[in-house]
Amino acid sequence: MWRVEEIDRRIVTLLARDGRMSFTDLARETGLSVSAVHQRVRRLEKRGVLRGYTSLVDYDAIGLPMTAFISIKPIDPSAPDDAPERLKHLSAIEACHSVAGDESYILKVRVSSPIGLEELLQQIRAAANVSTRTTVVLSTPYEHRFPVPGEDEDAEEADKA
Amino acid sequence: MWRVEEIDRRIVTLLARDGRMSFTDLARETGLSVSAVHQRVRRLEKRGVLRGYTSLVDYDAIGLPMTAFISIKPIDPSAPDDAPERLKHLSAIEACHSVAGDESYILKVRVSSPIGLEELLQQIRAAANVSTRTTVVLSTPYEHRFPVPGEDEDAEEADKA
DNA sequence: ACTGAAAAATTTTTGGG
DNA sequence: CCCAAAAATTTTTCAGT
């Protein structure tokens, strides 16, 4: 896998901060011409570095105020593990991560109420033949931040002297 | 909190699927005029239902191929709990959720390597005076899906007869 | 790869029902 | 809250370096 270079990285960062930023603004921020950034963005899209764009939604406002993480474990460990396939019709599941550790997947889900969560858990257990462990989210101080590679280094000016 | 009505919900869903969809396309999909959808989108933004827009990034390509969930617990339970504040300067932390259960927060992080994760854990423990429990993500079958309220009901045509 | 500029399309404003 | 149309801006294409 190749390394995304400086100016492309800047474009990706800007679009992560504002997915609708115009090419005009991207050009101004990067010092390139409009057509140059345009070309770069299209290339980043084609190469899959930019996978798409989305809006950030207030889930309280649309009637899904409850978030939870559900860890799942197969009841029959010898059965083929196709849980993601079996669960993907459940639209409440925002994400599905395969993980190391005692359980096999972590799901992030959004539901309308405790009863909605209960029903979802039943559907998950039935669909994938798994046991579940649920962690309810109480609040979310922050989310959807953009991790920048090499930003958290401790001693950045060590080799200046 | 008021209820987002049908057509606004459709707009939100469309923009969740494609955050750069044009007003022209939104108008066609909703059957409204361009200015009507424009007005509605601006209102949804002002009311905070649409919180913003972002690009979906391939973290492998930008040098952050490793994802993990880190659960944290205060070492001194009597100290004031300002962990989110103390941690938010760490850009590797994509999200911070306060949760019910044995631990107090779940962090989602992106790092470049196992060593990067080790260093991040040290920084987290030092900055927030917490113990950590880490679950490494092996792969992500899906992510960033948009949960649609009322999509997972089992018996939808029960009261038709 | 980048630039500048023309052409095409979209966004935003305006005026009015 | 809705539409239609004008005005402003952006996106997209393209010839040239």
UniProtKB/TrEMBL annotation, chains A, B:
GO biological process, alphabetically ordered: response to amino acid
Residue ranges of domain HTH asnC-type in the record: 4-65
UniProt keyword Transcription, yes or no: yes
InterPro entries: ArsR-like_HTH, AsnC-type_HTH_dom, Dimeric_a/b-barrel, Tscrpt_reg_AsnC-like, Tscrpt_reg_AsnC/Lrp_C, Tscrpt_reg_HTH_AsnC-type_CS, WH-like_DNA-bd_sf, WH_DNA-bd_sf
Gene Ontology cellular component list: cytosol
Keywords: DNA-binding, Transcription, Transcription regulation
GO MF entry, a single one: sequence-specific DNA binding
Pfam families, alphabetized: AsnC_trans_reg, HTH_24
UniProt protein name: AsnC family transcriptional regulator
Biological source species: Sinosporangium siamense
High-level lineage: Bacteria, Bacillati, Actinomycetota, Actinomycetes, Streptosporangiales
